[in-house]
Every structure is written in structure tokens, then in C-alpha cells.
Design goal:
This protein is α+β, with helices and mostly antiparallel strands. It contains ten helices and eight strands. The strands form three sheets. A four-stranded antiparallel sheet has the order 2-3-6-7. It has a two-stranded parallel ribbon with strand order 1-4. A two-stranded antiparallel sheet has the order 5-8. Helix 3 packs antiparallel against helix 4, helix 4 runs antiparallel to helix 5 and helix 4 runs antiparallel to helix 10.
Length: 419
């Protein structure tokens, strides 16, 4: 047993696991293929499509029954030749149910794309934060170690030593927290993509970091308002209105005639070699059912009116979001400019600290390096917030949010400076 184990260990070193390189676009492709939630919705769509096919076949497909009693056999067949009412409505209702589920699938796919990109962003920010905390911890440890030496030489006191130890421990705890966040997010990304969590992967952030933030522009609200009808909720509510209207038509049975064709083949036990065949055409006109169909129809019409109210409210909320978008953009862009300015200052400060390094201002250099890394993290975070904002705007009008990373962003119009 032991030699076999040693052989397996040796083979694992001889043939290392292939590292999977993940980019946001590639990860999205994997997620759309392997997402369990998307697969579940697709199965539900197949089920609804089968219901729709069943309703279509049931309308004009013949039905044959065999009756057996003590006197003999009776083969009875019927077929609907013509109807003037609810049968078509039932078919339409089944079709609309399928369409609603398809809209849900499209929206869920868009949300998966945004979620995958967000996980990449969280990984990048956690990695950068860990770099910041590592540099801060290194500087704090050197100061802590120096104060201990000074204490032994009688040049410091225990309060200063305890202060720097506390600072070092705080930065170290921050580093552990950032590393935990990085690994947890990476595991969550693997789980979402259907990849074994122990499989080694490499995450490429070039598609996110290379994104260029547009300048001197603002959100084109006219463009968004013209395309707001593509919003998932509005489309679903429109389909729900049609669905309840169709269900109401299903209940309209009084005075809605149906024309049937019947064929009956009879055989008695005492004369098994003889068959008697009868055919007939019957016009069925429902006259009264105690007003049950009336109340059922009114119930679905009430639901339709409720959805109409809900749809109008959703439309107003979406318009509010669209008209607020330029202000959100200005805020995010201002934060991005602030991060850029802070990064420029951090770079100048780092250059100055490096030029003064021979003057033994090593601690200042360490702080300048960690400040510069923190500035880079702020720029990254501000850029990521802009990307997410634009992706959500695309989702708001029912379009592919990945267009943002492809550079296809017709959401802007030239900014007119106020005098």
C-alpha cells in the first residue's frame, strides 16, 4: 500500500494540475453554460413549452375511449370541429406563461454577468488591499522592532513599544482579513462557474483595468427613455396583463358554441362478429352555469387591473432612475477624479521620499509606498463603481451589460458646461 501511495505522490509532482486562466468574459461564458439556476430555469421553460404543445394538440386532436360493460364493448371517439371562444385563449395563456419564463431567463443571465464581473472586482480590490496592509504592516513592524531596541538602550519607554506593537498587530489583522476576503471571493467565483473549488485558477483583470473612463460626457437620458420599454419588469408586467386577459377569456363559456363530431362503434357479446357504427355532429351551446364563469372571469380581470397599476408604478420608478442617472454619474466621476488626484499626489510624495532616502528617512519611504498603493486601490475602486453603474444601466433597458467591457457605450452625450 505504501509504495503505491508514494508512486501517486510522485506522479502528482510529475504532472502538476493545469492552471485555468479566467477573464471576466471567459468566466461569463462558463457561468451561462454551467449555472445551476440557469439550468433549472431552462428545464422549467421546457416544461411550459410541453404544456403549450399539449394545449394546442388538445384543441382539435381526436379523443378515443373504450367502454366495457356487462353487455359488450363500446368504442367512442370525438373531435372538436370548431369553437368560438375559450380554447384559443387557453393556448394563448400557455404560450404567454412560456414567454414570461423566457424573459426571466434573459434577466437572470444578465444578472449572472453582472455578478461574475462584481466577483472579479472584489477579488482585485481584496488583493490590492492585502498589498496595502502588507506594506503598512512591514513599516509598523520595523518601528516596533526599533522601539524594542531603543527600550533596551534606555532611549524609549514601554508605552511607545506597546503603541507600535498595537499598530503592527492591527495592520496584520487587516492583512489576514483581506486575504480571507480574497480567498472566499475566489471560492465563490469557482462555485458560481461550476468549477471544483480546489482546482487552481489564475484570474486576469486586464479587461477591467484597461477600461477607459469617458471624459466630458454625461448620461443621455433621452436614449434611455426611448429604450425603457425593454426593461425586464415592464416586459414581464405587459405579458402578465395579456396572460390574465387571456385567462379571463377562458372563462367566457356562456353562449360560446362548440361543434363536435362523434363516432361510436358498438359490439355485443352475443354477436361478436357484428359491429354497429353511429356517427353524429353535435352543436353544444352552454346556456347557464350559475354565474360561476362570470365570477371567474371577473376575478382574472381584477388581477389584470392590479398588474396594470403595478406596471405604471414600475414605469415611473424606472423613469426616476433614468432621470437620476446623470447625477449618479457626476458623483461617481467626481469620486474617480478625486482618486486620480490623490494617486498623483501619492506618486509625487513617493518620488520625494525616494530622493530623501539617503537622508535615512526610511520610514517616510515605507509610508509613502503604502500610501501610493492605497491610492491605486482607490482609483481601482472608483473605476469599478463606474463600470458597475454602466452595466446596471444596460440591464435597466434590457440590453447586454457586457457591452460596457467591449467599449460599446452609447449611453453618453456631450456634456454642456453651465455658465
Amino acid at each position: 500500500m505504501m509504495p503505491l501511495l508514494l508512486i501517486l505522490i510522485a506522479l502528482s509532482f510529475a504532472f502538476p494540475q493545469e492552471v485555468l486562466l479566467l477573464t471576466p468574459k471567459k468566466a461569463v461564458e462558463i457561468a451561462l453554460k454551467k449555472s445551476r439556476e440557469i439550468e433549472r430555469i431552462r428545464k422549467e421553460i421546457l416544461s411550459l413549452e410541453d404544456v403549450y404543445r399539449a394545449e394546442r394538440w388538445e384543441r382539435f386532436s381526436p379523443k378515443i375511449d373504450l367502454f366495457v360493460d356487462k353487455e359488450g364493448l363500446n368504442l367512442f371517439g370525438q373531435i372538436l370541429l370548431l369553437d368560438f371562444g375559450n380554447r384559443l385563449a387557453r393556448i394563448r395563456s400557455a404560450k404567454i406563461s412560456t414567454d414570461i419564463k423566457k424573459e426571466l431567463l434573459k434577466e437572470f443571465e444578465r444578472q449572472v454577468k453582472i455578478r461574475v464581473v462584481r466577483l472579479f472586482m472584489d477579488i482585485a480590490l481584496a488583493e490590492k488591499l492585502a498589498e496595502v496592509r502588507r506594506e503598512e504592516m512591514a513599516v509598523a513592524y520595523v518601528r516596533f522592532d526599533r522601539e524594542r531596541e531603543r527600550l533596551e538602550e534606555g532611549l524609549s519607554d514601554r508605552v511607545r513599544v506597546a503603541k507600535w506593537e498595537s499598530t503592527y498587530r492591527r495592520f496584520r489583522a487587516g492583512l489576514m482579513s483581506a486575504q480571507r476576503r480574497y480567498n472566499e471571493t475566489l471560492y465563490e467565483l469557482k462555485r458560481l462557474l461550476g468549477i471544483e473549488v480546489e482546482k487552481p485558477v489564475e484570474v486576469s483583470l486586464d479587461e477591467l483595468l484597461s477600461f477607459e473612463v469617458p471624459e466630458n460626457v454625461t448620461i443621455d437620458t433621452d436614449y434611455l427613455l426611448k429604450r425603457i420599454s425593454g426593461n425586464y419588469l415592464l416586459r414581464v408586467k405587459k405579458l402578465e396583463i395579456a396572460y390574465f386577459e387571456s385567462r379571463a377569456k377562458e372563462q367566457r363559456r356562456i353562449f360560446y358554441p362548440e361543434l363536435y363530431g362523434y363516432l361510436e362503434v358498438k359490439n355485443r357479446y352475443e354477436s361478436m362478429d357484428r359491429f354497429r357504427t353511429e356517427g353524429n355532429v353535435v352543436l353544444r351551446i352552454p346556456l347557464f352555469d350559475g354565474r360561476a364563469s362570470f365570477y371567474r372571469e371577473r376575478s382574472f380581470l381584477d388581477l389584470k387591473r392590479a398588474v396594470e397599476v403595478e406596471r405604471r408604478d414600475i414605469e415611473q420608478k424606472l423613469k426616476r432612475d433614468v432621470l437620476s442617472a446623470p447625477y449618479v454619474w457626476e458623483e461617481l466621476y467626481a469620486k474617480y477624479q478625486d482618486a486620480i488626484a490623490f494617486d498623483n499626489w501619492a506618486q509625487e510624495n513617493l518620488d520625494l521620499s525616494r530622493s530623501n532616502y539617503e537622508l535615512e528617512l526610511a520610514f517616510d519611504l515605507g509610508y509613502a509606498m503604502s500610501t501610493k498603493t492605497e491610492a491605486e486601490r482607490r482609483v481601482m475602486e472608483a473605476k469599478f463603481n463606474i463600470i458597475l453603474f454602466l452595466m446596471r444601466l444596460y440591464d435597466l433597458i434590457g440590453e447586454d451589460p457586457m457591452k460596457v467591457l467591449e467599449g460599446k457605450i452609447p449611453l453618453f452625450t456631450e456634456k454642456v458646461e453651465e455658465i
